[in-house]
């Protein structure tokens, strides 16, 4: 279309490929800072697949997003497109009789994304707003801002720990020594060690946690135990902990978005570093290793009525408590002089 070629079914196939790419990756295949650069990228077929893009879907999209309309999968024979492994299991003959999937509730938005609500969906057509939406540009992509001046290796890290160091089923002196060294380093160098009850941090990083209409950036700390703490990085205050249970599960929505389902609530989480899959894998692995302990703790918490209760609502504020302690001697000195 950009080159003035005839418009026909191959254009629809191209659109299908672009839609599949965006549905899986969460972003359009072609993105640029303005319309001119966007059109140049399309004409040069300048796009790339994210590292975790499924192979079958990658093959499907790659065969559709082709500059030559006649070479696109399905061109001249729609059956070739329908026979691709991407559509494995689809009953094309009876598809019109099948019950459509249930419409899911609105997907909460992160700080820089629009709320995915059918009532708020844009009108069809290719206007200026639609182009901006398709380019999928955001302030985060234009230039990430530094949240804190702390070592990024400490704040966005995944500690490479052998499985026996997490569960410790046997007394392994080498594993225990390695764990102790990591823990000592953590105590000295990681300012968030204060909040993890002296447990070794398995994974940590900034996550945008959605609650209600707002998202707030928190430092999430996945530790031995298991525990999943989250801290306000601005006030250095422990805000809460995700409760573990046998029925707890993770759900990856795209490279940035993932959910943690618990019996009492769903945690809507957005990783600005696009490591949603890594977070879910780490949580699932820790849950599997501590399965017996989680089940025991969950049953006890249910009996006591304490499951899911946020015991950190009145948690200590690191900087606030520190200032308070520093001010106490000054107040006592002032009181002495008045006497």
TrEMBL record:
Record-given protein name: 3-phosphoinositide-dependent protein kinase 1
Compartment(s) where it occurs, according to its Swiss-Prot or TrEMBL record: Cytoplasm
InterPro entries for the chain: Kinase-like_dom_sf, PDK1-typ_PH, PH-like_dom_sf, Prot_kinase_dom
Location, primary (coarse class): cytoplasm
GO terms for cellular component: cAMP-dependent protein kinase complex; cytoplasm
Top-level EC class: transferase
Domain Protein kinase: 1-87
GO biological process: cellular response to oxygen-containing compound; regulation of developmental growth
Biological source species: Oesophagostomum dentatum (Nodular worm)
Superkingdom per UniProt: Eukaryota
Record-listed E.C. numbers: 2.7.11.1
Reaction(s) this enzyme catalyzes, per UniProt: L-seryl-[protein] + ATP = O-phospho-L-seryl-[protein] + ADP + H(+); L-threonyl-[protein] + ATP = O-phospho-L-threonyl-[protein] + ADP + H(+)
Spans annotated as Disordered: 320-339
Protein family according to the UniProt entry: Belongs to the protein kinase superfamily. AGC Ser/Thr protein kinase family. PDPK1 subfamily.
Classification of source organism: Eukaryota, Metazoa, Ecdysozoa, Nematoda, Chromadorea
């Amino acid at each position: 279309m950009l080159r003035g070629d005839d418009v026909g079914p191959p254009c629809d196939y191209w659109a299908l490929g672009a839609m599949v790419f965006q549905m899986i990756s969460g972003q359009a295949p072609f993105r640029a800072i303005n319309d001119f650069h966007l059109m140049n990228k399309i004409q040069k077929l300048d796009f790339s697949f994210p590292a975790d893009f499924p192979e079958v879907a990658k093959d499907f999209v790659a065969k559709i997003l082709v500059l030559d309309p006649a070479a696109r999968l399905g061109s001249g024979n729609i059956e070739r497109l329908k026979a691709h492994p991407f559509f494995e299991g689809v009953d094309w003959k009876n598809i019109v009789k099948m019950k459509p999937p249930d419409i899911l509730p609105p997907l909460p938005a992160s700080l820089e994304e629009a709320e995915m609500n059918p009532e708020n969906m844009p009108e069809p057509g290719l206007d200026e707003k639609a182009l901006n939406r398709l380019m999928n540009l955001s302030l985060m992509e234009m230039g990430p801002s530094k949240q804190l001046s702390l070592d990024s290796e400490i704040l966005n890290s995944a500690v490479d720990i052998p499985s026996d160091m997490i569960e410790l089923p046997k007394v392994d002196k080498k594993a225990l020594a390695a764990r102790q060294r990591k823990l000592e380093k953590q105590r000295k160098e990681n300012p968030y060690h204060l909040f993890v009850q002296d447990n070794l941090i398995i994974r940590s990083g900034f996550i945008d946690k959605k609650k209600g209409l707002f998202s707030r950036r928190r430092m999430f700390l996945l530790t031995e135990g298991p525990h999943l703490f989250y801290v306000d990085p601005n006030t250095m205050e422990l805000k809460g902990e995700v409760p573990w249970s046998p029925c707890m599960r993770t759900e990856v929505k795209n490279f940035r978005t993932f959910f943690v389902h618990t019996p009492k609530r769903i945690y809507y989480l957005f990783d600005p570093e696009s490591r949603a899959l890594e977070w879910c894998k780490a949580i699932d692995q820790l849950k599997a290793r501590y399965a017996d302990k989680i089940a025991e703790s969950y049953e006890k918490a249910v009996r006591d009525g304490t499951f899911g209760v946020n015991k950190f609502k009145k948690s200590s504020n690191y900087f606030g408590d520190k200032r308070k302690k520093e001010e106490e001697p000054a107040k006592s000195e002032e009181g002495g002089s008045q006497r």
